[in-house]
Amino acid sequence: MAMAAPVMRMASSASFLPRLLPPTVFSTTRARVLVRQLSLPLFPNLNIAIPVGISLGLPSLPEVLEGIWEGILKAVPKKKTSHMKKRHRQMAGKALKDVTALCVCPACGGMKRMHYVCPTCASTHPADIFSLAPAPSAIITASGSSSLRVYDTTQPTYPLAQTISNAHKLGCHHLATARGPQTGNVFASVGFGGDVKIWRLNPDSKEYELQWELPTVGDSGKGDVWAIALSADENFLACTTSDGRIHVWDLTAKEKIQTYETAGGRGAAGGGGSFAMAVDLSRDGRLTTSGHENGAVYVFNNDAGRMVYSLSGLAKPVRAVAFSPGCKKLAAAGNAGIIALYDMEHGEHVGNLSAPGNRPSWITSLDWNDTGDYLLSGQLDGKVKVWDVGRGACVATHSETDSALWCVRWLPPTERALGPGMGKGERFCAAGASRSLSFYREATGI
């Protein structure tokens, strides 16, 4: 018994000390060793009662750690959420309910969905806009739909002034107005059905009305009219056909006075000329030019009634031709992606206007400003460029849309500013596959 006493005291202390002290103070490995020593068969007949644990009223270790953790959390300041962020979170769920609400568009007066752009104002036409015709106080638009629309350009919002319904059943692809101070009384339109109509402004109602319609070709549509151009005095109309001819009509007498043939020109086959895709009349009424699918450009003298120049320089289809206001230069462009400039005094190719790049986009439209210093071009990639002809460089490029541009036109200069801070600088309009009108103005000006 004397030998067993030290062992029993050692075992008793080893059994309850680990319950009071943390593991770092008393090693659990040591306790296991002592227990194994007690299990040795030193006294097989002796049964020793070892207490399981002694309760001293001390808190348990999880409770101590929990209290310490709560103190640490209270000591660290919490991140505060601003009032604006809380308000935004509150309004986020409510904003979704307003999407289905309807309201009245302040611009056109039509119904639209709240928080959405008005579809009537955003889409000027239900189809692609193919042509523009500027007048001193308005701009006329034509598209694949049957109606023509007239917009007022004397107000800063460019409101819709007139809609000519059922003008062309199959849609309209070309418009023409005269350029000058005393113009805007007459414009011409060509539909996809080959019908050509002349419209005149009613001085009383200030709206355009149908004056007369040119007789259509009855030979199974052969020689249908494509491009048109109106003289500066609004008395003559030039029309191109699909077989390469150019007809000149007297609008006052309502008869055809001249026909120019291009069947003997470059690329003619089977006795017919190449498709005449573009036409223009000089402002002095002396010259007529046409651009063709085979890349040819022809210039005709209206007084002599014959061809004076057959211009080269473009090997691909020519989609736009334009005389300068002084009739000294001619610009032509198309699928080649460059603008060729010609001198009308001698009929020489004097230069090209082109943007850097390996694959230039097709040029679909050209237009000179009133002074002849700048040339406007519209491209198939949606870019509209302003060229300084004197410097031979592009001075501005706008690419608000990736859709094709079918027509670009300078607007006549105004005598007063349309709105505060707008100035009286140059303005132009672009339209195309986006079905909307884009108006641009010069950033500086008086």
Automatic annotation (TrEMBL):
Keywords associated with the record: Repeat, Ribonucleoprotein, Ribosomal protein, WD repeat
SUPFAM superfamilies in UniProt: WD40 repeat-like, Zn-binding ribosomal proteins
Q: Name one GO cellular component term.
A: nucleus
Q: Where are the WD repeats?
A: 218-259, 363-397
List the Pfam families hit by this protein, alphabetically: Ribosomal_L32p, WD40
Asked if the Swiss-Prot or TrEMBL record annotates the protein with the keyword Ribosomal protein, the reply is yes
Give the signal peptide range.
Answer: none
Q: Which family does the record assign? A: Belongs to the bacterial ribosomal protein bL32 family.
What this protein is called in its record is: Meiotic recombination protein rec14
The organism is Triangularia verruculosa
